[in-house]
Amino acid sequence: MTVAVLNLGGTIALSYDASGRPVTLPASELVGDQDHELFELDPVQSNALSWSHLLALRAALVRLAQSGNRTAVVITGTGTVEDVATFLHVAGPAESRVALLVSFADASGGGRAPGIDAALTWLRADHAGGLRLFADGTPFDYPFEKHCGSGAWQFLAKPRDLGVPPWRLPSSSPLAQEVPRIPVASAGIEAATWIGPLLELVPSDGLILEAYGAGDVPPPVADQVRAYVADGGHVVVTSLARPGLVEPTYPGIPGTSHGLLSAGCYGGGVLTARQARMRLAVALASGIPNAPRDAFASFMPTTSPSSPGAS
Fold first, then answer.
1. In the predicted model, what is the mean pLDDT of residues 39-43?
2. Which residue, of 4, 41, 258, 268, has the greatest Cβ tally within 10 A?
3. What is the pLDDT of residue 308?
4. What is the pLDDT of residues 143-196, one digit of tens each?
5. Domain coordinates of the chain in residue numbers?
6. Greater confidence, 84 or 129?
7. Is-contact 137 118, C-beta < 8 A?
């Protein structure tokens, strides 16, 4: 089997010269003597990854799938692997089988990519589509999130039921070249003092709102968010809890998730704010009018908006 290696960069695939500029390692060093086809996607370190890199990744996977090659190894940085994985989960070809490789190790000396053998074994197992992360050889199916525990980075599996619809953009649907502007705002004591000015002064296409528990925020923030939604803004509510499921609770109490979701905010299920932001970005970039609503959980009001104390 010829392995398609799509290189976005990161610890595995990059070394650095004396001036700090990234130097790409040869794919032969990463996959050994395995027959491979290398696609260099302007490899960079995690903090330089851009929307254009993701578009190039998607285009390469679509071309491979159309040519009959539905398996690929994607090498990327640990810092942005959650973004890359979420992007592929909702925008990659459904028939593709993709192994994401990351490493926490220093790659300055080069060497065979950690996890490449496990990734190749999985890719050869069958021809069904799928997405799996190999972090220093340990496999994780999507969804997952990165944590730091016991002094080291680690990945933790999330519930397979994301609490959102199984939405995926068809690979034939184009995406805008410019990334949608989606800030993330976290609830906190007196959060209205910064969320309100953010919504008023910063042009945005959507908002990710990190809330308490099942989706609660200070009542003044709820007022600001409802006004933003009424003006056509897209708001996804996620939970600061890990993992936390966003769902309509405590009807009639100001600022609770029931009022936000009834006002037209979308529920982010158990997605982190970072995962929800990428999912919303793909939906908005598709230009499909109902895509944001279809990509997240939406809830119909169960109480009248005129009810006393409705939030």
1. 85
2. 268
3. 38
4. 887 776 665 667 777 777 888 999 999 999 999 999 999 999 999 999 999 999
5. 3-157, 184-295
6. 84
7. yes
At 26 the pLDDT is 67
Return mean pLDDT, the chain: 86
Give the model's pLDDT for residue 151: 56
Please tell me the predicted confidence (pLDDT) of residue 42.
87
Cis peptide leading into 143, omega within 30 of 0? yes
Same fold, 3-157 and 184-295: yes
Strands (E) located in 71-126: 71-75, 97-102
Of 5 and 2, the structure prediction assigns the larger pLDDT to 5
**Coil/strand/helix, residue 228:** helix
What is the amino acid identity at position 61? L
123 residue type, one letter:
L
The token duo for 257 is: 């998730």
Mean pLDDT value of segment 54-62: 96
Domain 184-295 in this protein, CATH class: alpha beta
Q: Give the span between the Cα atoms of 299 and 269, in whole angstroms.
A: 12
**Contact call for residues 243 and 158 (beta carbons, < 8 A):** yes
Catalogue the E-assigned strands of the chain: 3-9, 14-16, 22-24, 36-44, 71-75, 97-102, 130-135, 138-141, 144-149, 152-157, 184-186, 206-211, 234-239, 266-267
**CA nearest 297: which of 141, 143, 160, 161?**
161
- If you ran DSSP here, which 8-state letter would residue 290 be given? T
56-81 burial: b if 16+ Cβ within 10 Å, else e: bbbebbbebbeeebbbbbbbbbbbbb
Contact by Cβ (8 Å): 180, 288: no
Backbone angles phi, psi at 153, to 5 degrees: -70, 145
Name the CATH superfamily for 3-157. L-asparaginase, N-terminal domain (3.40.50.1170)
Q: Is 140 helix (H, G, I), strand (E, B) or coil?
A: strand
Torsion of CA 288, 289, 290, 292, to 10 degrees: 80
